[in-house]
Amino acid sequence: xxxxxxxxxxxxxxxxxxxxxxxxxxxxxxxxxxxxxxxxxxxxxxxxxxxxxxxxxxxxxxxxxxxxxxxxxxxxxxxxxxxxxxxxxxxxxxxxxxxxxxxxxxxxxxxxxxxxxxxxxxxxxxxxxxxxxxxxxxxxxxxxxxxxxxxxxxxxxxxxxxxxxxxxxxxxxxxxxxxxxxxxxxxxxxxxxxxxxxxxxxxxxxxxxxxxxxxxxxxxxxxxxxxxxxxxxxxxxxxxxxxxxxxxxxxxxxxxxxxxxxxxxxxxxxxxxxxxxxxxxxxxxxxxxxxxxxxxxxxxxxxxxxxxxxxxxxxxxxxxxxxxxxxxxxxxxxxxxxxxxxxxxxxxxxxxxxxxxxxxxxxxxxxxxxxxxxxxxxxxxxxxxxxxxxxxxxxxxxxxxxxxxxxxxxxxxxxxxxxxxxxxxxxxxxxxxxxxxxxxxxxxxxxxxxxxxxxxxxxxxxxxxxxxxxxxxxxxxxxxxxxxxxxxxxxxxxxxxxxxxxxxxxxxxxxxxxxxxxxxxxxxxxxxxxxxxxxxxxxxxxxxxxxxxxxxxxxxxxxxxxxxxxxxxxxxxxxxxxxxxxxxxxxxxxxxxxxxxxxxxxxxxxxxxxxxxxxxxxxxxxxxxxxxxxxxxxxxxxxxxxxxxxxxxxxxxxxxxxxxxxxxxxxxxxxxxxxxxxxxxxxxxxxxxxxxxxxxxxxxxxxxxxxxxxxxxxxxxxxxxxxxxxxxxxxxxxxxxxxxxxxxxxxxxxxxxxxxxxxxxxxxxxxxxxxxxxxxxxxxxxxxxxxxxxxxxxxxxxxxxxxxxxxxxxxxxxxxxxxxxxxxxxxxxxxxxxxxxxxxxxxxxxxxxxxxxxxxxxxxxxxxxxxxxxxxxxxxxx
Length: 878
Hints:
Oligomer: single chain
Strand content: 15-25%
Structural class: alpha/beta
Largest sheet: 8 strands, mixed
Mean pLDDT: 92
Distance between the termini: 25 Å
């Protein structure tokens, strides 16, 4: 049920990275930011002591996702004052860019979009025309190119042209209409025009060749400017070459309070989420466009090409990196807008770490003008402002790395293509991860894919250069089974996926691998080597009948992976005949495993497990199996960089009926890849990416024969799979039995069910007692609390009357179930926020093995938590 799951209270430990014990003990309250800064006095003592001198303001917003990836926000403030003026500098460019796209959408003029050529004319004092743009690939100015430059290098002229297109009056009317009541944007940047000149905005024309598509005349804003009292700063300023010894006036300058600045960014990063007023009227393509250029680095830009000596990665990314010249790690993306002028430095950012599944928003301003003279160029940016921004960003990032989350975020929305793919590195594999979004197939972003879902991509493969698609045969129910061939090398490799119909992770990755191998970009050397040295034979979906109903077995109820000897099923015969025809040297047997596996004796899920299958009961290692083991060692080394500690080794007991074991026996060096569970990733999107990286890396290793240098004994150092993970583990609760309370842990599984094409979860208590050697995707420490069944709410109610609000009231009052006249179907029952029972039932039994997980957890007379169908609901805060 959407948005029902509350915040996390106790969850699995995350890896600690450079986080001091003092930081970890900081309480999350209104003093959080101040207390965090106090843990690093070497970096923040001067700031804390002189916060008003530096006019520091900070807003840090935590983002927590629910099971549907919907975000909730909690903001923390330091020295924030919405009425304290600061000069917003280039941060005003961000909302003007949003409004330019919004205006285009409302115009609805045929042929006029953000990529159309927009020529700016001049018709009033101070105005200048723009008829060409040498920095654009087309040689012509366009709104898209202006926005691109505005975000990547904070180009002032680009902002001015968008300001002129939208118009001063429309900009400020829109700000007010959207609830940004204290913001004002009333002048251009870097050119000094008077108030009347800024009221007038240039005429513009959209053209295609010699044709004018749309013309907008010069506009004057007749409205009073949205000023709010006199604003004076400092004790002097330079005018011309003279020092004026009186405060500088900022009354008629732009202003956006820090909270409204962050809210504007949030409106685009999380459009419309519980906040329709503040949103901008943008298309999904607009959002993807903005995500690209808000996060793209100068080095990733082709038009124009920015010299890296001047335009380093952190050129427009102050938070976390200050003015560092080193490269920003590619797993970190910063969607932001900075500003720097008159001694003020501002950064307004949404920061994402794809590797560690971290996200947060951070907005900050600092003012450095020790001599209190403006326009003299003497500001302490290098000494104070840049270090502050870097240290603050890193402080919050390190805190976020260790902050507990119930669900990891899904960042697929922000996987955008950048102008330039990075050059191939010496180690190659990081680029596979970093550039994954270029080859990603969003249409396959869910597990329950069927034959019809992959058919468009099978058809597409037929037209890919160097690819051949053939029909191998049909399934029991007549669905086509295809072979995709690529490459022309001597080493033959067979890959087959989804021989179990409900194991689709690798299937999804294979189509992205097709995109990768057929693409033309900076990784050509890598992919060309694979295609030159190997020939790939790929069966993307061996069991389409099982996939149709998302079940393991085929339409004959046969497990294909136990049919390698008798070959009863047509699908098994197809696989055996394909192997015999091509006699591949290597084989990849691609599966999914239970999400409840962990890496042995660790609290980390076995997200990916490998196996070089045995070919006899003695589990001997011949040359072929040894090659498979070495290849697995190499893949393990790569994946440890991205999912450290989450790699397992599958049980190698010999199974004489299994295909992997027999492939090994028949002379094909076989690697089993099993995709398990990953916290916060119910659709296994991250594990699709891991398959993409692992398989392509393995193919490269085969093409180069590098795997031969890997130590064979390292294979046995990969921890074995263990099955120690519950969906929910309640620890140390007091359970009443036979007149006494006993301290017990309760392990709960949530099994996936399907009804009319929709999925839901049904919980079951699997074990009770000492589960100290087990782990949970979600853990709750009930130490000192009692676990009670609760009571049945006496009156009979209609199912339609059961709302989240009413259910919460019943749970707080000690009721875990309500009576209904007629029990609805299983899906509705399972997703209700409280248990339901027949009208005739009056008693609930205590939690026990095999039962649905419905109970209360109380401390004293207060019900603190409820567990309803395996979902934890926090009822009272501490």
